[in-house]
TrEMBL record:
EC number assigned by the record: 5.3.1.6
Gene, per the UniProt record: rpiA
Pathway(s) this gene product operates in, as recorded in its UniProt entry: Carbohydrate degradation; pentose phosphate pathway; D-ribose 5-phosphate from D-ribulose 5-phosphate (non-oxidative stage): step 1/1
Cellular compartments per GO CC: cytosol
GO-annotated biological processes: D-ribose metabolic process; pentose-phosphate shunt, non-oxidative branch
Protein name in UniProt: Ribose-5-phosphate isomerase A
Lineage top rank: taxon: Bacteria
Subunit structure: Homodimer.
Length: 234
């Protein structure tokens, strides 16, 4: 990842705080490198006295938040959130996203839906004309995962999507999510109709959640390589 891209992520995070975060809010903190830059920026405001009640979308974000002095509330004890800020792996101009490159999609979707508003934070490289270059993650229970994989392949085929599906591995071991599940990464041809695909994948027994987020994002805050940023609302 280039230094320029990291800088664009930081710029976007600062802009989110400026435009959307207010004292007293209940916030959902997203996962991944972009969200972590945002959390680190937020830590500076908390250190300067901003009062926030925060919960997170992954164990990794809990660690980053604590590191920068942000207390984390159990999601069961927070009620409805005002705002969740989270990053995509890809986002199109209709605000459809692929998420889950860091295996956090399930908690991310739960927390996004627990919030009155979700804002996407990203650098300009994440914006695409059509979803599908980034492999679509599907979180599945461990039991009979190869059967679930066959059913995922069938649904993708029904959507006329050519796909290669791989169980995600790291250091020779299957990746296990924060909820104890596996991830199937689906390297797809272009995803033309993400909204029905999102629903149909989730109808498969064994699928816990998939990385298509077609309804959640209310707007995007984009950091650019030239140092500028912009906000686009749905
Ligand atoms: O599971 C991970 C999340 O969906 C991330 O928010 C997503 O992968 C984007 O991560 P990054 O900001 O590192 O590109």
């Amino acid at each position: 990842m280039s230094e320029q891209q990291n800088e664009a992520k930081k710029i976007a995070g600062r802009r989110v705080i400026q435009e959307f975060v207010r004292d007293g809010m209940k916030l959902g903190l997203g996962s991944g490198t972009t969200s972590h830059f945002f959390v680190r920026e937020l830590g500076k405001h908390v250190a300067n006295g901003m009062k926030l009640t925060c919960t997170t979308t992954s164990r990794s974000t809990i660690d980053v938040a604590r590191e920068v002095g942000i207390a984390i509330t159990d999601p069961n004890d927070i009620g409805e959130l005002d705002l969740t800020v989270d990053g995509p792996d890809e986002i199109d101009r209709q605000f459809n996203m692929i998420k889950g490159g860091g295996a956090c999609l399930l908690w991310e979707k739960i927390i996004a839906h627990a919030s009155r508003q979700m804002i996407t934070v990203c650098d300009e490289t994440k914006i695409v004309d059509r979803l599908g270059a980034f492999p679509l993650p599907v979180e599945v229970v461990q039991f009979a995962w190869k059967q679930t994989e066959r059913m995922v392949a069938r649904v993708l085929e029904e959507h006329r999507i050519e796909a290669s599906i791989y169980r995600r591995m790291r250091d020779g071991q299957p990746v296990v999510t924060d909820s104890g599940n596996f991830i199937l990464d689906c390297k797809c041809s272009a995803i033309v109709e993400p909204a029905p695909l999102e629903i149909e994948l989730n109808r498969i027994p064994g699928v816990v959640e998939n990385g298509l987020f077609t309804r959640e994002s209310a707007g995007m805050v984009v950091g650019c390589f030239d140092g500028s940023s912009y906000v686009k609302m749905r």
